[in-house]
Amino acid sequence: xxxxxxxxxxxxxxxxxxxxALEALLIKKGVITERTVDTxxxxxxxxxxxxxxxxxxxRAWVDPAFRERLLADTPKAIAELDLPDGMxxxxxxxxxxxxxxxxxxxxxxxxxxxxYPWPVLGLPPYWYKDPTFRSRAARxxxxxxxxxGLPLAKNxxxxxxxxxxxIRWFVVPERPEGTDAMWEGELEALVTPEAMMGVAVSKxx
Amino acid sequence: MLTQFExxxxxxxxxxxxSPPRANGTFCFSSEWERKSFxxxxxxxxxxxxxxxxxxxxxIAAIGNWEADHSVDRSSWNYYDHFLSALEMAVIKAGIVDSxxxxxxxxxxxx
Lengths: 205, 111
Description:
CATH superfamily of the largest domain in chain A: Nitrile hydratase alpha /Thiocyanate hydrolase gamma
Number of helices of chain A: 10
Number of strands of chain A: 4
Strand order of the largest sheet of chain B: 1-2
Mean pLDDT of chain A: 88
Mean pLDDT of chain B: 89
Strand order of the largest sheet of chain A: 1-4
Low-confidence stretches of chain A: 1-5
Order of helices and strands of chain A: HHHHHEEHHHEEHH
Largest interface: A-B, 49 and 48 residues
Radius of gyration of chain A: 21 Å
Number of domains of chain A: 2
CATH topology of the largest domain in chain A: Nitrile Hydratase, Chain A
Largest sheet of chain A: 2 strands, parallel
Oligomer: heterodimer
Strand content of chain B: under 5%
Shape of chain A: globular
CATH architecture of the largest domain in chain A: Alpha-Beta Complex
Largest sheet of chain B: 2 strands, antiparallel
């Protein structure tokens, strides 16, 4: 065992004890309860996050009529699903879905993270707010996608959608080949936030 | 519709030096103490024990100091080390607990 490993292990134990102490103290003083942390983080862990987007996309994959409704009136179609309250709220009300097809790939970008459709996609990645990413994605999306590990054939058209305070876009990726036997819940696991931003595609495994 | 405090608080951090580690649309907590630190800070600010911006000022300063001291070797970086220190500082400054109480509680928990 290296010295560094011992050091890290000690530091981990030290931090664990510090947090346990602080939490116990705050509970004893009646400032928080044992449920407080779970309650506040529930918002990110179970209510608003990429799991919602995955459910929407998986439904669109198994139900072509839903897919049509989703593209025609996104908030109305989302309201059909049993998703947490607030999906159609401050961030959800202006959402618009665009679907990839064999000939068209969609990419979403935005200037402000407040415009990110996070009830569906969760927290934005680091590079999303980077001005270089945004300007390059708008100017040369094919080169940017290539750098993301997504080389697209020349005959595939790339559409770039800039989210704003008015409209927050998300992408319905194509259903991967070889997934015909999969049920909706299994398909959800194949939908990543990056695929719903258009910097990746969904894969069967 | 009013924006949820949780949403507002985390959105403010995005693209700033104190933005928390994340991947695939969710927070990256590598252990339970990191998750609890984040949850406690958010809950205390939500309930008005201190201002989220004041807490962030502590955190940004702590991160800045660490970066100034580690301009070359950054292998020991852990965001939540600084987050926890900023949280302890914030609860003391807010008058919720004092440092002696924290030390006493730590002595109990670490034995």
